[in-house]
Amino acid sequence: MEVFYRGEWFGLCTGWWSIMKEVKVVCRELDCGNPVAESRGPLIEDGTRGIIPYGCSGDESSIRQCDIRGEPGYCFGGYYHHVICSESVRLVDGAGLCSGRVEVKSNQSWASVCEADFDRQDAEVVCRDVGCGAPAALQGGLYGGGGGQTWDKEFQCKGNESILLDCDTSDRENNTCLPGNAVGLTCSEPDDVRLVGGGSRCAGGVEGYDQGEWRTVGASDWNQGDVAAVVCRQLGCGSTVSVLLGNTTRGFRVICSGSESSLRECRRMYDLHPGLTVICSDLLVQPDIFLTDPMGGVFRGHQGPEMFRGYNFTITCSTQPQYPGGSFLLTFTGSNRTQTQPAVNHSADFLFPAADDSHQGNYSCVHDNYVFSHNFSSESELLSLTITASPLPAFIIRHVVVLLILLTAITTSYLYYKPTRRQKRVNRVSSMDLYVNAKEMVSLSSRAEAGPGEERAAQGTE
To answer: Is 148 in contact with 54 (CB distance < 8 Å)?
Structure first.
């Protein structure tokens, strides 16, 4: 980046400041869409002096409207600003860099895209093109209807293209786009921040992806709370629980107001600084809840699992291996009744001996654990259970189940006999069958030849 200032071109320094707000202004001034990435690097033309813009809000139409810090000079360390803009697509009127109304550059002007001409695969390419994560929401009119020109083509993206210009296009099937149906898109924040060493994606030392590698992120002691709030927000980890300064190292230091959507919107400084360790409220992963029964009394209904009256059932709470210990609280929305059990191998079973109408309702598991000197909890999704009448009395089903188990055990024991012994037994049985069959044939023959009285005598003899 170079800025024409006081009659000559100056490089834009990043020795102290490297921020996305100035980049946003530059991309707007050049009519190049959204800022995708910014970095520091040597100027191509050696000997060029630089300036440091300061105080940009991000809404300026020109970088010259920002304040200039100090007098022009050579950039500290020889580093100048390098910028990538999205060029042909942008998100406008959103809450941050990764949300807004989709607009496409057409004939040197920007046009809104109709919702009917835009699908999930198109959204994946747009989010990638503007330097953000995967699509999170896609809805017409979400960020205004777009009162100007409407894009006259339909995108045919496969979803794996790097930029929107790589996608095929076709003529629109409908020539009109109803007012208020300009597509609005919300992308997830870029995957350029992580927390390491804490046993969870929501706890640990802060690292940011910069200049092609992961580097330690730090903050001044007066600004660490605001930086931690932005980190937890970007990672989708809730609010800040704890923030600490660690060992001094080389990476980059950030200064945030606390309201930014992502860390790349904060001011950045490259110097020695204490590393930052952050713990967010959503430390524990969401537990799972599921229902089992040993008697076959549960089946899937339209509203979820249904259980026959009189059958016993078990609700199991479990979570991924993360931290040892903790407990599970089973809550029931149908009453104030709750049960608590310690987590054994990261799970707990809650047994109900006989289902009745009082067990109908919504259940949830709450996983509680004491980690990093703080109490954390995470709640599962709701399990909606319906109690219904059984087609057969429960005691009959119990006896049938017991008989089936006994028959299975007997059959299994029989199949484990030795082959030779089984073969001898089969041969012996076969010989006996032949003997009986032969004897019956002789008896029938004798009866056919004798009269009625003799037949009765023959039966007595037999």
So the answer is: no
